[in-house]
Design brief:
By secondary structure, the protein is of the alpha/beta class. The protein is built from twelve helices and ten strands. The strands form three sheets. It has a five-stranded mixed sheet with strand order 7-6-8-5-9. The protein has a three-stranded antiparallel sheet with strand order 3-10-4. Strands 1-2 form a two-stranded parallel sheet.
Length: 332
Amino acid sequence: MRSLKFALAAMAATVALGAAQAEPVKIRMAWVAPVSNWASILLEKQDLAKHLGKSYTAEAVRFAGTPPMITALANGELEIANLAYSTLGIAIENAGISDLRVISDDFRDGVPGYFSNQFFVRKDSGIKKVEDLKGKVLATNAIGAGVDIAMKAGLKKHGLLDKRDFTVIEAPLPTMPSMLNDKKADLVTAVIPFALSPQLNEIGFPLFDQTLGLGPSQFVFWTARQSWIDKNRAALIDYMEDMLRIERWFLDPKNHDEAVQIASKLLKVPADRLGWLYTKKDYYRDPDMMPDLVALQKNVDVAVDLGIFKSSIDVKKHSDLSLIQEAAKRLK
């Protein structure tokens, strides 16, 4: 009788363990700019996500910028962060997330023939060149964010240094046109889609773009912790397969009109204002979701030069591209 009880207990434990293992892996993915960051729009095509709800669940979480994602990663409140080149080093060196890994591309800035983030001034401001920004107030979405560092790198090339020669304030990206219109800032940061705001382009013009400070950049990319990757590798490859399939759908010119309609609903703007979406007027996105690690290394070194973190990191050592590579093989 005792043997039977032990056998039944062992069987129950095995069943419970199997049920626990079958539970879908929870994946919270971060984003900042709507439709520009993949996480903000991918779930609009859930019909292409074959593994969603089976091996994993997905939730898109919005952040004001990439720096707050670091805290969320450290506290276990986020699984995939779309960090910028500037916050990668902060997360690894300053926050001590040494097992952080670059796992895929999100988008690149300044690739020849494609869009680059812009920095607008008022048409009536009298500001005609970068040197005219001395003593002015500049608006960024978050101190330490990718566009913030790119802006400061560009100004440094013209002899202007942060805090010594200009003041930087923070403001949400959607409010940049009104910040410039109300003269609360002399220069504002404009990323897609906000750079195409009719109000912004009516009152201002781009004084320079991000390539001034960075050149072509692996601006934003997906990251995850190695400890989490190792624990959930199978589900994560399923997830990457689905996301890659959906991304390719959005990038396919045949689906452009439908993609624009989806974006129109998300942004609550007329579809006829979104013809640029996922074209050469937009950021460059790799159809295989492979990041440019060479460009990323150069971008990280720019952040080091500006003192954002003390020493450079070896980007290749903090990358795991096997996940997206394995996912891509499934789609061949």
